[in-house]
UniProtKB/TrEMBL annotation:
<dbReference type="Pfam" id="PF00121">
    <property type="entry name" value="TIM"/>
</dbReference>
<dbReference type="GO" id="GO:0019563">
    <property type="term" value="P:glycerol catabolic process"/>
</dbReference>
<comment type="pathway">
    <text>Carbohydrate biosynthesis; gluconeogenesis.</text>
</comment>
<dbReference type="GO" id="GO:0046166">
    <property type="term" value="P:glyceraldehyde-3-phosphate biosynthetic process"/>
</dbReference>
<comment type="pathway">
    <text>Carbohydrate degradation; glycolysis; D-glyceraldehyde 3-phosphate from glycerone phosphate: step 1/1.</text>
</comment>
<keyword id="KW-0413">Isomerase</keyword>
<feature type="binding site">
    <location>
        <position position="214"/>
    </location>
    <ligand>
        <name>substrate</name>
    </ligand>
</feature>
<comment type="subunit">
    <text>Homodimer.</text>
</comment>
<dbReference type="GO" id="GO:0006096">
    <property type="term" value="P:glycolytic process"/>
</dbReference>
<keyword id="KW-0963">Cytoplasm</keyword>
<dbReference type="InterPro" id="IPR000652">
    <property type="entry name" value="Triosephosphate_isomerase"/>
</dbReference>
<dbReference type="InterPro" id="IPR013785">
    <property type="entry name" value="Aldolase_TIM"/>
</dbReference>
<keyword id="KW-0324">Glycolysis</keyword>
<dbReference type="InterPro" id="IPR020861">
    <property type="entry name" value="Triosephosphate_isomerase_AS"/>
</dbReference>
<dbReference type="InterPro" id="IPR022896">
    <property type="entry name" value="TrioseP_Isoase_bac/euk"/>
</dbReference>
<feature type="binding site">
    <location>
        <begin position="235"/>
        <end position="236"/>
    </location>
    <ligand>
        <name>substrate</name>
    </ligand>
</feature>
<feature type="active site" description="Proton acceptor">
    <location>
        <position position="169"/>
    </location>
</feature>
Length: 251
Protein backbone atom coordinates (compact mmCIF):
# COMPACT_ATOMS: atom_id res chain seq x y z
CA UNK A 1 0.00 0.00 0.00
CA UNK A 2 0.98 3.62 -0.45
CA UNK A 3 0.89 5.54 2.85
CA UNK A 4 -2.00 7.99 3.06
CA UNK A 5 -3.77 6.54 0.01
CA UNK A 6 -7.15 4.86 0.45
CA UNK A 7 -7.17 1.56 -1.44
CA UNK A 8 -9.74 0.84 -4.13
CA UNK A 9 -11.28 -2.57 -4.75
CA UNK A 10 -12.97 -2.48 -8.15
CA UNK A 11 -15.12 -5.23 -9.62
CA UNK A 12 -15.18 -5.63 -13.40
CA UNK A 13 -18.30 -7.65 -14.19
CA UNK A 14 -17.40 -7.78 -17.89
CA UNK A 15 -20.20 -9.17 -20.10
CA UNK A 16 -22.12 -10.88 -17.32
CA UNK A 17 -25.52 -10.32 -15.79
CA UNK A 18 -29.14 -9.73 -16.69
CA UNK A 19 -31.33 -7.33 -14.72
CA UNK A 20 -32.28 -9.78 -11.99
CA UNK A 21 -28.69 -11.04 -11.64
CA UNK A 22 -27.21 -7.56 -11.53
CA UNK A 23 -29.67 -6.24 -8.98
CA UNK A 24 -29.19 -9.25 -6.72
CA UNK A 25 -25.41 -9.04 -6.89
CA UNK A 26 -25.39 -5.30 -6.25
CA UNK A 27 -27.70 -5.68 -3.26
CA UNK A 28 -25.54 -8.46 -1.82
CA UNK A 29 -22.40 -6.31 -2.16
CA UNK A 30 -24.16 -3.34 -0.58
CA UNK A 31 -25.46 -5.42 2.31
CA UNK A 32 -22.05 -6.95 2.91
CA UNK A 33 -20.37 -3.57 2.80
CA UNK A 34 -22.80 -2.22 5.40
CA UNK A 35 -23.66 1.42 5.91
CA UNK A 36 -20.19 2.56 6.90
CA UNK A 37 -17.05 3.07 4.87
CA UNK A 38 -14.44 0.37 5.36
CA UNK A 39 -10.71 0.58 4.87
CA UNK A 40 -11.13 0.29 1.11
CA UNK A 41 -13.30 2.18 -1.34
CA UNK A 42 -15.54 -0.23 -3.24
CA UNK A 43 -16.48 0.06 -6.91
CA UNK A 44 -18.49 -2.19 -9.21
CA UNK A 45 -18.48 -1.85 -12.99
CA UNK A 46 -21.43 -3.66 -14.58
CA UNK A 47 -22.31 -3.81 -18.29
CA UNK A 48 -23.92 -0.69 -19.75
CA UNK A 49 -27.37 -2.30 -19.63
CA UNK A 50 -27.18 -2.63 -15.84
CA UNK A 51 -25.86 0.80 -14.89
CA UNK A 52 -29.26 2.19 -13.92
CA UNK A 53 -30.34 -1.00 -12.19
CA UNK A 54 -27.14 -1.37 -10.20
CA UNK A 55 -26.99 2.35 -9.47
CA UNK A 56 -30.46 2.23 -7.95
CA UNK A 57 -29.53 -0.76 -5.79
CA UNK A 58 -26.39 1.00 -4.51
CA UNK A 59 -27.76 4.53 -4.19
CA UNK A 60 -26.92 6.19 -0.91
CA UNK A 61 -24.46 3.47 0.11
CA UNK A 62 -20.67 3.20 0.21
CA UNK A 63 -20.26 1.31 -3.08
CA UNK A 64 -19.57 3.37 -6.22
CA UNK A 65 -20.64 2.50 -9.75
CA UNK A 66 -18.49 2.60 -12.86
CA UNK A 67 -18.62 1.57 -16.50
CA UNK A 68 -16.34 -0.60 -18.62
CA UNK A 69 -15.61 1.65 -21.60
CA UNK A 70 -16.65 4.87 -23.33
CA UNK A 71 -16.33 6.52 -26.71
CA UNK A 72 -13.94 9.41 -27.23
CA UNK A 73 -16.68 11.67 -28.60
CA UNK A 74 -19.35 13.26 -26.41
CA UNK A 75 -22.06 12.47 -28.99
CA UNK A 76 -22.50 11.78 -32.67
CA UNK A 77 -23.01 9.14 -35.33
CA UNK A 78 -21.32 6.26 -33.53
CA UNK A 79 -23.73 3.36 -33.67
CA UNK A 80 -23.38 0.95 -30.79
CA UNK A 81 -21.11 3.19 -28.71
CA UNK A 82 -21.75 4.97 -25.42
CA UNK A 83 -20.26 8.36 -24.53
CA UNK A 84 -18.76 9.49 -21.24
CA UNK A 85 -21.52 12.09 -20.63
CA UNK A 86 -24.10 9.31 -21.11
CA UNK A 87 -22.33 7.20 -18.50
CA UNK A 88 -22.22 10.12 -16.07
CA UNK A 89 -25.92 10.73 -16.71
CA UNK A 90 -26.62 7.06 -15.95
CA UNK A 91 -24.92 7.37 -12.56
CA UNK A 92 -21.36 6.18 -13.24
CA UNK A 93 -18.48 7.83 -11.40
CA UNK A 94 -15.61 5.79 -12.83
CA UNK A 95 -14.87 4.15 -16.18
CA UNK A 96 -12.43 1.36 -17.03
CA UNK A 97 -10.39 2.14 -20.15
CA UNK A 98 -7.78 0.26 -22.13
CA UNK A 99 -8.49 -3.13 -20.62
CA UNK A 100 -6.48 -5.82 -22.39
CA UNK A 101 -9.68 -7.37 -23.72
CA UNK A 102 -10.56 -4.06 -25.38
CA UNK A 103 -7.03 -3.65 -26.69
CA UNK A 104 -7.02 -7.20 -28.10
CA UNK A 105 -10.63 -7.72 -29.18
CA UNK A 106 -11.22 -4.21 -30.56
CA UNK A 107 -7.73 -3.19 -31.62
CA UNK A 108 -7.54 -0.26 -29.21
CA UNK A 109 -4.08 1.27 -29.09
CA UNK A 110 -2.66 3.80 -26.68
CA UNK A 111 -3.88 6.76 -28.73
CA UNK A 112 -7.48 5.51 -28.58
CA UNK A 113 -7.22 4.94 -24.83
CA UNK A 114 -5.77 8.42 -24.38
CA UNK A 115 -8.66 10.01 -26.29
CA UNK A 116 -11.19 8.07 -24.22
CA UNK A 117 -9.48 9.07 -20.98
CA UNK A 118 -9.62 12.72 -22.01
CA UNK A 119 -13.33 12.36 -22.77
CA UNK A 120 -13.96 10.65 -19.43
CA UNK A 121 -12.23 13.40 -17.49
CA UNK A 122 -14.10 16.09 -19.41
CA UNK A 123 -17.38 14.40 -18.42
CA UNK A 124 -16.43 14.25 -14.75
CA UNK A 125 -15.58 10.55 -14.64
CA UNK A 126 -12.50 9.06 -13.00
CA UNK A 127 -10.58 6.99 -15.58
CA UNK A 128 -9.22 3.59 -14.55
CA UNK A 129 -6.58 3.02 -17.23
CA UNK A 130 -5.34 -0.54 -17.67
CA UNK A 131 -1.82 -1.50 -18.71
CA UNK A 132 -0.08 -4.86 -18.90
CA UNK A 133 2.19 -7.13 -20.89
CA UNK A 134 1.58 -10.42 -22.69
CA UNK A 135 3.33 -13.60 -21.63
CA UNK A 136 5.61 -13.40 -24.66
CA UNK A 137 6.62 -9.86 -23.77
CA UNK A 138 7.41 -10.90 -20.20
CA UNK A 139 9.43 -13.92 -21.31
CA UNK A 140 11.37 -11.67 -23.69
CA UNK A 141 12.22 -9.32 -20.82
CA UNK A 142 10.15 -6.50 -22.28
CA UNK A 143 7.40 -6.28 -19.63
CA UNK A 144 8.51 -3.01 -18.05
CA UNK A 145 9.19 -1.36 -21.41
CA UNK A 146 5.73 -2.36 -22.67
CA UNK A 147 3.96 -1.05 -19.58
CA UNK A 148 5.96 2.17 -19.60
CA UNK A 149 5.06 2.75 -23.24
CA UNK A 150 1.39 2.17 -22.47
CA UNK A 151 1.51 4.62 -19.57
CA UNK A 152 3.19 7.30 -21.67
CA UNK A 153 0.74 6.86 -24.52
CA UNK A 154 -2.50 6.34 -22.61
CA UNK A 155 -2.49 8.87 -19.77
CA UNK A 156 -3.61 12.44 -20.53
CA UNK A 157 -2.08 15.54 -18.95
CA UNK A 158 -5.10 15.95 -16.66
CA UNK A 159 -4.88 12.37 -15.37
CA UNK A 160 -3.37 13.20 -11.98
CA UNK A 161 -5.64 16.18 -11.38
CA UNK A 162 -8.65 13.97 -12.09
CA UNK A 163 -7.59 11.41 -9.47
CA UNK A 164 -7.10 8.84 -12.23
CA UNK A 165 -6.32 5.23 -11.38
CA UNK A 166 -3.82 2.90 -13.07
CA UNK A 167 -4.58 -0.82 -13.13
CA UNK A 168 -1.70 -3.17 -13.88
CA UNK A 169 -2.95 -6.45 -15.30
CA UNK A 170 -0.46 -8.89 -16.79
CA UNK A 171 -2.46 -10.13 -19.77
CA UNK A 172 -1.40 -13.74 -19.28
CA UNK A 173 -2.83 -13.79 -15.73
CA UNK A 174 -6.33 -12.51 -16.52
CA UNK A 175 -8.87 -15.26 -15.98
CA UNK A 176 -6.24 -17.99 -16.02
CA UNK A 177 -5.84 -18.56 -12.30
CA UNK A 178 -2.13 -17.75 -12.66
CA UNK A 179 -0.49 -14.79 -10.97
CA UNK A 180 3.01 -13.34 -11.11
CA UNK A 181 5.22 -13.75 -8.09
CA UNK A 182 4.89 -11.15 -5.37
CA UNK A 183 8.37 -9.93 -6.27
CA UNK A 184 7.32 -9.45 -9.91
CA UNK A 185 4.19 -7.53 -8.90
CA UNK A 186 6.14 -5.32 -6.51
CA UNK A 187 8.79 -4.60 -9.14
CA UNK A 188 6.24 -3.61 -11.79
CA UNK A 189 4.26 -1.43 -9.40
CA UNK A 190 7.48 0.30 -8.35
CA UNK A 191 8.28 0.96 -12.01
CA UNK A 192 4.78 2.35 -12.59
CA UNK A 193 5.09 4.56 -9.51
CA UNK A 194 8.43 5.92 -10.70
CA UNK A 195 6.94 6.73 -14.10
CA UNK A 196 3.93 8.45 -12.54
CA UNK A 197 6.18 10.55 -10.32
CA UNK A 198 8.39 11.48 -13.26
CA UNK A 199 5.35 12.55 -15.27
CA UNK A 200 3.12 14.14 -12.62
CA UNK A 201 5.47 15.03 -9.78
CA UNK A 202 4.27 14.77 -6.20
CA UNK A 203 0.71 14.02 -7.38
CA UNK A 204 2.04 10.95 -9.17
CA UNK A 205 3.15 9.56 -5.85
CA UNK A 206 -0.43 9.58 -4.57
CA UNK A 207 -2.24 8.08 -7.56
CA UNK A 208 -3.69 4.65 -6.92
CA UNK A 209 -2.14 1.68 -8.72
CA UNK A 210 -4.32 -1.43 -8.69
CA UNK A 211 -3.25 -4.99 -9.38
CA UNK A 212 -5.50 -7.20 -11.50
CA UNK A 213 -5.18 -10.71 -12.85
CA UNK A 214 -6.82 -13.67 -11.09
CA UNK A 215 -7.20 -11.87 -7.76
CA UNK A 216 -9.22 -13.98 -5.34
CA UNK A 217 -9.73 -14.25 -1.56
CA UNK A 218 -6.94 -16.82 -1.23
CA UNK A 219 -4.21 -14.58 -2.68
CA UNK A 220 -5.53 -11.07 -2.00
CA UNK A 221 -3.91 -10.34 1.37
CA UNK A 222 -0.24 -10.82 0.39
CA UNK A 223 -0.74 -8.96 -2.89
CA UNK A 224 -2.52 -6.03 -1.24
CA UNK A 225 0.20 -5.81 1.39
CA UNK A 226 2.86 -5.05 -1.24
CA UNK A 227 4.29 -1.56 -1.56
CA UNK A 228 2.58 0.55 -4.26
CA UNK A 229 -0.33 -1.88 -4.57
CA UNK A 230 -3.27 0.36 -3.74
CA UNK A 231 -6.10 -2.06 -4.38
CA UNK A 232 -7.27 -4.54 -6.95
CA UNK A 233 -9.20 -4.75 -10.19
CA UNK A 234 -11.17 -7.95 -9.73
CA UNK A 235 -12.71 -9.95 -12.57
CA UNK A 236 -14.36 -13.31 -11.98
CA UNK A 237 -14.33 -13.06 -8.19
CA UNK A 238 -16.36 -9.84 -8.36
CA UNK A 239 -19.34 -11.87 -9.64
CA UNK A 240 -19.64 -13.55 -6.23
CA UNK A 241 -20.47 -11.02 -3.53
CA UNK A 242 -18.83 -13.02 -0.73
CA UNK A 243 -15.58 -13.35 -2.68
CA UNK A 244 -15.50 -9.69 -3.67
CA UNK A 245 -16.14 -8.60 -0.09
CA UNK A 246 -13.51 -11.02 1.21
CA UNK A 247 -10.94 -9.41 -1.10
CA UNK A 248 -11.96 -5.98 0.20
CA UNK A 249 -11.61 -7.24 3.77
CA UNK A 250 -8.05 -8.34 3.04
CA UNK A 251 -6.90 -4.71 2.81
Amino acid sequence: MTPGVRPLIAGNWKMHGLRADGSALARAVAEGAGGGAGAAELLVCPPFTLLREVGAALEGGPVAVGAQDCHAAAKGAHTGDVSAPMLRDAGARFVILGHSERRADHGEGDAAVLAKAEAAIAAGLVPVVCVGESEGERVAGDAEAVVTRQLDGSLPEAFAASGGVVAYEPVWAIGTGRTPTEADIAAMHAAIRARLRARFGEAGGRLRILYGGSVKPANAAPILALENVDGALVGGASLVAADFLAIAAAV
